[in-house]
Amino acid sequence: MQVGLTSYLIVAALLFCLGLYGVLTRRNAVAILMGIELMLNAANINLVAFNRFVAPAAVAGQVFALVIITLAACEAAVGLALVMAAYRSLETIQVDEINLMKW
Amino acid sequence: MPWLIELLKAIGLAVVIFTFLAVVAAMLGVYLERKISGWIQARLGPKHIGPQGLLQTVADTVKLLQKEHITPRHADALIFNVAPVIVAVAALLDWVVIPFGKLGDRVLVVRDINIGVLYFAAMSSVIVIGIIAGGWSSNNKYALLGGLRSASQMISYEIPLALGILWAAMVAGTLSTVGIVDAQVRQGSWFMFKLPSPIGWFGLPFGILASLTFLTAATAEVNRVPFDLPEAESELVAGYFAEYTGMRFALFQLGEYGEMFGMAAVATIMFFGGWTEPHLQPYMWLLVTLGCLVVAAVILTTGLRQTLLVRPILMLAGLGLLLSLVMFFGTRAGLSQVLPSLMWFLAKMFALVFFLMWMRWTYPRLRLDQLLTLSWKVLLPLGLLNLLATGFVLTVWGR
Amino acid sequence: MGELAAFMILSLVTLIPAVVVVTSSNIVRAALSLVPTFLGVTGLYVMLQAEFVAGIQVLIYAGAITVLILFVIMLTEGGTGVRTRQLNDQVPLGAMAAVWLAFVLIVIFTRTGWPTAAGVLPAYNVVAVGNAFLSDYVLIFEVTSVVLLVSLVGAIVIARRED
Amino acid sequence: MLQVAWLIPLLPFIAFWVILFRGRRLPGEGAYVAIGALGLSGLLSLVILGQVMFGGRYQATMVWATMGDRPLAVGYAVDPLTAVMLFVVTVVGSLIFIYSVGYMHGDPRYPRFFAYLSLFAASMLLLVLANNFLVLYAGWELVGLCSYLLIGFWFERPAAARASMKAFVTTRVGDFFMFLGILLLFFTVGSLQFDAVFAAVQTGSLAGPLLTLAAVLIFGGAVGKSAQIPLHVWLPDAMEGPTPVSALIHAATMVAAGVYLVARTYELFFSSPDHLALTVVAYIGGLTALMAATIGIVQDDIKRVLAYSTISQLGYMMLGLGVLGYTAGVFHLMTHAFFKALLFLAAGSVIHAMNTNDIKEMGGLAKVMPVTYVTMLVGGLALAGVPPFAGFWSKDEILLEAYHHDRTLFYLGAAGAFVTAFYVFRMIFYTFTGSLRSHTAHPHESPQVMTVPLIVLAAFSGVIGLVGAPWPLVGNMFHRFVHFEAAEGAPFDLRFAALSTAIAGAGILAAAVVYRWQLVSSATLRRVLAPAYAVLVHKYWWDEFYAVSVVRPVVWVAQQLRTFDVYAIDGAVNAIGVVFVWLSRLYRVFDLYVVDGAVNLVGWLAKAAGGRLRHVQTGRAQNYLLVIALGVIVLAVIGLTR
Question: For testing the chain D interface, which of A96, A99, A100 should be mutated: the one with the most D CBs within 10 Å?
Answer without folding.
Answer: A96
